[in-house]
From TrEMBL:
UniProt feature coiled coil, ranges: none
Domain of life: Bacteria
Ranges that cross the membrane: none
Keywords: Kinase, Transferase
Listed GO MF terms: kinase activity
Domain Aminoglycoside phosphotransferase: 26-251
Name of the protein this chain belongs to: Aminoglycoside phosphotransferase (APT) family kinase protein
A Pfam family per the record: APH
InterPro entries: AGP_Transferase (IPR051678), Aminoglycoside_PTrfase (IPR002575), Kinase-like_dom_sf (IPR011009)
Length: 311
């Protein structure tokens, strides 16, 4: 069931007694597991209401709310140099579970192509990411979100590769490359940290040349910090990547991870395998076709790089 913006606005008025809803709008990026709307009150304050579409999303929302409650003090005292959503009220849903309402976090989505080298926004992104990885792991554990040790996380990655291989749709040379990296024990000696788990341009908000907010914490876990870096290493301009990593490493207290960037690049490649598996599991042929094309493009690119390196 998909709720209309008006139904979501009604939920917001239940969650926040006294809220005078003046206008309601769908966000530009609607979710797949949540119905989301932005409610504007009579004072022109903006509120986000999120209602889970199914029981699994409802359970994820409860864990995310517990985590956000724990993150609030870190944002207040500056240990997190950005805002996070602050749940302000809840409305119980007829089918079970509840909708959550929070003030809209100000800022606009980060545009990776706008990042430049030097001490500006790229460095701010690196510092913001490092601050997440410096959080105590107890904030995730106490919220009931997943916790992995390094060996367990490597096994999780191996299982993904095995499942992708069984589809018969991944180029053999890519599979060999992934297997070699997974078998390199030295690569997988890392200290697990809190990770956001779903960082993207839509989830990182910027304002006045700084990171203003980070959204959507429902995929947070204790796992490999390289995962949060992968989207930046893959998609940001290369000269900006250097600035991001330099600022990140300066902010981290754990500096004995020489394979961090290698694992981040692998995580970016395995994201294509997960996209393929999503298409296979949900019987979406267009997703499968898209993933297969991207995997073949990646295979050609990596083979060209290896040939150039050999010469």
């Amino acid at each position: 069931m998909t709720r209309s913006p008006l139904a979501l606005a009604a939920l917001a008025t239940v969650a926040l007694p006294g809220l005078d809803a003046y206008d309601v709008r769908r966000p530009l990026q609607p979710g797949t597991d949540f119905d989301v709307a932005v409610v504007i009150d009579a004072q022109r304050q903006r509120w986000v209401v999120r209602a889970p579409q199914h029981a699994v999303a409802g359970a994820a929302l409860e864990a995310e709310v517990a985590l956000l409650d724990a993150l609030g003090p870190f944002a207040d005292d500056g240990r997190l140099p950005f805002a996070v959503p602050r749940p302000a009220g809840f409305a119980h849903l007829p089918e079970g579970g509840r909708a959550c309402v929070h003030r809209e976090v100000p800022g606009r989505p980060l545009r990776l192509e706008s990042l430049r080298p030097g001490p500006g926004l790229a460095a701010a992104v690196g510092r913001a990411l490092a601050s997440v990885h410096e959080l105590p792991t107890s904030v995730v554990e106490n919220a009931g979100l997943p916790v992995y040790d390094a060996a367990g996380y490597r096994e999780r990655r191996q299982a993904e590769v095995d499942e992708a291989a069984r589809t018969g749709l991944v180029p053999a040379s890519l599979l060999r490359r992934w297997e070699q990296m997974l078998e390199d024990v030295a690569m997988w000696r890392f200290r697990p940290t809190v990770v956001h788990g779903d960082l993207s341009s839509d989830h990182v908000l910027v304002q006045d040349g700084a990171v203003a907010g980070v959204l959507d914490w429902g995929s947070a876990m204790v796992a490999d910090p390289a995962d949060d870096l992968s989207w930046l290493l893959v998609a940001a301009p290369q000269d900006a990547v250097d600035a991001i990593l330099e600022a990140y490493l300066l902010r981290r207290t754990e500096l004995t991870d020489p394979h961090l960037a290698d694992r981040a690049l692998l995580a970016g490649e395995l994201a294509l395998a997960r996209w393929l598996l999503h298409g296979v599991r949900t019987h979406q042929q267009d997703v499968v076709d898209d993933a297969v094309q991207m995997l073949h493009d990646l295979d050609e690119h990596t083979r060209a790089e290896e040939t150039a390196a050999a010469h």
